[in-house]
Structures are given as C-alpha cells and as structure tokens.
Amino acid sequence: MREERETCGVPSGIRLMNLLRERLTEIMDRERANRNSIHLYCTGPYWVAFERSAYQLHRAFPDSETTPLRLFAYPFP
C-alpha cells in the first residue's frame, strides 16, 4: 500500500523507466522462457508487455495500440 501511495503521482513514463531500471533483467529472463503467456506490467494508466508477451498480446488483440521500444541493453535480434 505504501508503494502505491508513493507512485500514484508519478507519471507513467517515469514509472516505465523505473520498471526497466529495476527489473529489466528479470523481465527479459522471464520472456526468454515464455512460450504461451502474456506478462503485463502496470505503469499507472498504461499496461506494458515485452518481447514474447508483446507478440502474444498483439496476436490476441491486433487492433490494440502498439508502441515499439528499442532497449539498447537488449538489441534486436
């Protein structure tokens, strides 16, 4: 609850950057092993998915808004 109060006034872009800074390795490890799940992460009013989760989400909801991001720590492919 305390964490929720501390982040409720933080813009979603800042929350996304914090998520990437604090949990990127964990997220990428989870996605590397992901075969059929969609992992979503809350950044305030938005939810984000990465890698295979994002692909599965796009396949399930092709009309949803998609914004590709490039993470320099994990270049494609």
Can you describe this structure in just a few lines?
This protein is mainly alpha-helical and 77 residues long. Helix content is 48%, strand content 5%.
Architecture overview:
This protein has 77 residues and is mainly alpha-helical. It has one domain. It has helices spanning 2-7, 12-32, 51-60; strands at 41-42, 47-48. A two-stranded antiparallel ribbon has the order 1-2. A hairpin with a 4-residue loop joins strand 1 (41-42) and strand 2. The protein is globular and about 35 Å long. The chain starts with a helix and ends in a 17-residue tail after the last helix. The model has no long low-confidence stretch (mean pLDDT 85).
How many β strands by DSSP? Answer: 2
The 3D shape can be described as globular
Q: Which class best fits the helix and strand makeup? A: mainly alpha
What proportion of the residues is helical, as a percent range? Answer: 40-55%
Largest sheet: 2 strands, antiparallel
The fraction of residues assigned to DSSP E strands is 5-15%
Could you give the topology of this structure?
Blueprint: H1 2-7, H2 12-32, E1 41-42, E2 47-48, H3 51-60
Features:
single chain; 48% helix; two-stranded antiparallel ribbon; globular; 77 residues; mainly alpha
